[in-house]
Amino acid sequence: MNTNRSVSRRDIIRALAGLAGASLAAPVLAACGGEDNPASTAAPTATSQAGTGSGGSAATATSAAATPASTPAGTPAGAPATGTVGGSLTVYSGRSEQLIQAIVDQFAAASGVEVKVRYGDTAEMAAAILEEGQSSPADIFFAQDAGALGAVAREGLLAELPADVLDLVEARFRSPDGLWVGISGRARAVVYNTERLSESDIPPSILDFTDPVWKDRLGWAPTNASFQAAVTAIRVLRGDDVARAWLEGIRDNGARVFENNNAIVSAVIDGEIDAGFVNHYYLMRQLAEAGGDLPARNYIYRNGDPGALVNVAGAGILTTAKNQEQAIAFIRYMLSPEAQTYFAEETHEYPLVAGVPTDPNLVPLSEIQTPDIDLSDLADLEATLEMLRDVGLL
Ligand SMILES: [Fe+2]
């Protein structure tokens, strides 16, 4: 998809702000990775000073810097760029407090940086950054999908990251212009009931689920932000006509509409539906919580199909950032072995830095041929929403 430079920043703000506003009033856009996760493992640590609100609307949390005593004098070479950085940093986060505050606290403790985090959904934070423009207090935009980073980058508001930071992550999971970098990977998956289906029953393309053989067996969550990004990917890769026909075909197959991905996974486990379209980590989290096996598995496409999309949560530094050094230290930390392990183990996402183990129950990224797409191009959410409305899904 080509960048449409004729779209004004005001139009984009209106679109993003509309999404954010609508998501508060009605389930047009559900957070993905925030509210629809089970309460679980990523509770803030004691270093958080915040008496913060719960996820959802924009809350602000502050991580206090640790005492200087916690900063070792001789930090080994190759360790993340923490040490004594000091100062402060403001992060606008589309990732929920529940998922990331703990790792933000660890960064604060390791670096001596006081971190203020404003939480909201990703579209809302992108809209805020565009609206605030030159006067935005944000140093970093930490988004849960690449499309929102692309939207902010397209407006010239993200600065180029240092090459050694970019090089930590494969090219397919970062901005081709070096303006944002993926922090963790989020694969699209078909979650299926193992008593009804085996892997060989899954068709070779996600687009094939329009076959009537799938009538009344599927579930989806059209309000889910990651689903919408996946539809945008089909639009970008195959064109609007194919995307629309796919949506109509799945709809006409009687796919059950769920509020979020967790509900889809639960319905698959309970045998209410045979399969559903989700992000991979929802099942991983339910498996971890169950502490035993469940009759469901993820099928992750690995053949370059539009269904093989791996989106990222990622971060960029604002051109207007007043705390550049702290911002770079934050991104380096999020790509450090400690933080990458946190994302692998606590949020059940894919680590994106080599050498950090992926959950053995997941297909390794090296075996997934992702579709040939610049994740920045997932920015065109408005046209996807319009299509979903036209097809009667929103
Ligand atoms: Fe999600």
UniProtKB/TrEMBL annotation:
PROSITE patterns: PROKAR_LIPOPROTEIN, SBP_BACTERIAL_1, TAT
GO cellular component: outer membrane-bounded periplasmic space
A GO molecular function held by the record: metal ion binding
Positions with a binding annotation for Fe cation: Y281, Y282
Region (Disordered) location: 36-81
Database matches in InterPro entries: Ferric-bd (IPR026045), SBP (IPR006059), SBP_1_CS (IPR006061), TAT_signal (IPR006311)
Any GO BP annotation: transmembrane transport
Annotated keywords: Ion transport, Iron, Iron transport, Metal-binding, Signal, Transport
Signal peptide: 1-30
Pfam families, sorted: SBP_bac_8
Gene3D superfamilies, per the entry: Periplasmic binding protein-like II (3.40.190.10)
Similarity section: Belongs to the bacterial solute-binding protein 1 family.
Protein name (database record): Extracellular solute-binding protein family 1
Species assigned in the record: Sphaerobacter thermophilus (strain ATCC 49802 / DSM 20745 / KCCM 41009 / NCIMB 13125 / S 6022)
